[in-house]
């Protein structure tokens, strides 16, 4: 309950919608009170109606039929209004929570740092499938929190309202035990209490494994769905590698985990359903059996017997809320646990930006400079120790080194997204980074070209010219076409589209990480000449990562990451030389 309260508190106590949320919650509670009051009126109606039947009093019978119509009308009206406001509150709550979590997940590249944490040595790693936690778990959490909490409130109100009625109707049980006479007032109340305590204890014993099983079921379902999406995204690569059988086996393995855990869920739920069904069916005749001697002796009439049974049923239902809802409580608990771990992970990594003090240079001639720069892998392995580097306007630098030496990681550090680094860095503000595998969003081509800026910021002529300069003239007429461009464009075309973004936005500083690795030599030479001319005209510089020797023709300086001996503080050192 502490975890659930911690997840619910931000919306109801600190959000901009808190007053509306509280007002709607008060209305829902008031409607629950009204509903319980209608149930009390219905219980009183039972006594009058069945007494009229027993006495064959037609006038009272028809009168009570009319009264029942009004009770039924108000019951239906309250139920409908309660459902509507509860669902509306749940929708508003889910909307706020989803947007809040999305903004925090995306802020400060937390989504990226959570994935990096998967490879760290310490901690439990990031929460699995954050997409599912935001989309599915939040919907389930708000749904179950509203439904179960209002159900519990209704059970408490029903118990308070009917326990006095049952106490007054159930009479006194007298018996002799060990030579002593005992009189127990409100016997049916005590019987209901003992009955429900026994049922609750047994239910908890039977149903407790459902909590862990539901937690794992959500994870296995998400893992299976995630792998299906990856097969769709990498369909061409899988087909070219003849990897369909391997992926089929992997999908079967993940689906097998789904089925295996679900079978265990079914077995546990079978036992729980069996007991709760027996518990519920027994309660239907339990009050009749206990009160039958009083009825047949003439101590009570049929109407009072029906009132006792109705009141006992209400009290028993209220006390049995935990029994009746145990499987849903287990899902609620598992969902709250998943969101709590996601919340903790986001809080732990949201401000984890590393110890690199980043500044922006001032003055007419900004420069790139880094001092005492140390970079490590997520598992703590040091890559670079106390390195210094400097790039002045007009420089063109080629960064080289063996695979795994940390070339791309150095770029990530300069971009400010690598959390496992420390030192000082001065990075010019007007800079762009081109990854080896650029992100190409689905949708209109103009939006993919201008990403992440809005396409409306650029004229159509500028967009077409950028495509033409990036050697993509065949796409000039397709600016308004919507498609899955990451699937339709080849690797080389995607790299040229990333270069078209640079030529469109005209940054002064450019960092290119194997940005032309999928291009032929002629296209690579042409595009590098245009990129170099672009940054030179803007008064900036260009730093590139490349393995091809031909790329060095477009750079005047060279940095090289060279292996260090095992006794050195890091695996590599950075050396600089003329190209």
Your description of this structure?
The chain is of the alpha/beta class. It folds into 2 domains: 2-350, ABC transporter type 1, transmembrane domain (ABC transporter transmembrane region fold); 355-578, P-loop containing nucleotide triphosphate hydrolases (Rossmann fold, 3-Layer(aba) Sandwich), CATH 3.40.50.300. Helix content is 62%, strand content 14%. It is built from 18 helices and 14 strands. The protein has a 6-stranded mixed beta sheet, sandwiched between helices. Strands 3-7-4-5 form a 4-stranded mixed beta sheet, covered by helices on one side. It has a two-stranded antiparallel ribbon with strand order 1-2. Strand 1 and strand 2 form a beta hairpin. Helix 7 packs across helix 12 and helix 15 (460-469) packs across helix 17 (491-505). It is elongated and about 110 Å long. It starts with a helix and ends with a strand.
């Amino acid at each position: 309950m502490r975890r659930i309260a911690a997840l619910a508190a931000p919306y109801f106590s600190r959000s901009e919608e808190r007053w509306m949320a509280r007002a709607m919650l008060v209305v829902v509670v008031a409607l629950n009170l009204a509903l319980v009051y209608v149930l009390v009126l219905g219980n009183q109606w039972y006594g009058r109606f069945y007494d009229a039947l027993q006495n064959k009093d037609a006038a009272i019978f028809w009168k009570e039929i009319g009264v029942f119509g009004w009770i039924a009308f108000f019951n239906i009206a309250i139920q409908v209004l309660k459902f509507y406001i509860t669902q509306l509150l749940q929708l508003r709550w889910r909307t706020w929570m989803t947007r809040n979590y999305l903004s925090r997940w995306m802020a400060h590249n937390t989504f990226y740092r959570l994935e990096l944490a998967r490879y760290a040595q310490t901690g439990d790693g990031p929460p699995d499938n954050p997409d599912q936690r935001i989309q599915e778990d939040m919907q389930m959490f708000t749904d179950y929190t509203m439904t179960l909490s209002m159900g519990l409130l209704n059970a408490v109100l029903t118990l308070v309202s009917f326990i006095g009625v049952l106490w007054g109707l159930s009479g006194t049980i007298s018996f002799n035990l060990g030579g002593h006479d005992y009189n127990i007032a409100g016997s049916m109340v005590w019987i209901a209490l003992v009955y429900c305590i026994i049922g609750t204890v047994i239910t908890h014993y039977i149903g407790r494994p459902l909590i862990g099983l539901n937690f794992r079921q959500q994870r296995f379902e998400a893992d299976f769905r995630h792998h299906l999406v990856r097969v769709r995204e990498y369909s061409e690569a899988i087909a070219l590698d003849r990897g369909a059988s391997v992926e089929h086996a992997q999908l079967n393995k993940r689906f097998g985990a789904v089925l295996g855990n679900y079978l265990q869920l079914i077995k546990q739920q079978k036992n729980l359903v069996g007991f709760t069904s027996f518990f519920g069916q027994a309660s239907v005749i339990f009050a009749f059996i206990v009160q039958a001697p009083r009825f047949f002796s003439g101590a009570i009439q049929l109407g009072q017997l029906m009132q006792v049974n109705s009141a006992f049923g209400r009290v028993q239902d209220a006390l049995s809320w935990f029994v009746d809802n145990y499987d849903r409580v287990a899902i609620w608990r598992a969902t709250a646990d998943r969101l709590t771990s996601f919340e903790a992970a986001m809080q732990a990594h949201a401000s984890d930006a590393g110890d690199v003090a980043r500044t922006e240079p001032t003055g007419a001639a900004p420069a790139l400079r880094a001092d005492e720069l140390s970079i490590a892998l997520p598992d703590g392995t040091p890559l670079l120790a106390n390195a210094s580097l400097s790039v002045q306007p007009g420089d063109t630098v080629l960064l080289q080194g063996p695979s795994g030496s940390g070339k791309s990681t150095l770029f990530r550090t300069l971009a400010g997204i690598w959390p496992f680094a420390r030192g000082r860095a001065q990075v010019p503000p007007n800079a762009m980074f081109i990854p080896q595998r650029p992100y190409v969003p689905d949708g209109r081509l103009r939006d993919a070209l201008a990403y992440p800026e809005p396409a409306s910021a650029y004229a159509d002529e500028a967009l077409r010219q950028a495509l033409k300069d990036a050697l993509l003239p065949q796409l000039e007429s397709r600016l308004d076409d919507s498609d899955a461009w990451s699937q339709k464009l080849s690797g080389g075309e995607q790299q040229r589209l990333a270069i078209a973004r640079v030529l469109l936005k005209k940054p002064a500083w450019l960092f290119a990480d194997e940005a032309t690795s999928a291009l032929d030599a002629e296209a690579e030479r042409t595009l590098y000449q245009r990129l170099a001319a672009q940054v030179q005209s803007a008064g900036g510089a260009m730093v590139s990562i490349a393995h091809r020797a031909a790329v060095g023709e477009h750079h005047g300086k060279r940095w090289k990451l060279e292996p260090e001996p095992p006794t050195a503080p890091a695996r590599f050192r950075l050396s600089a030389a003329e190209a």
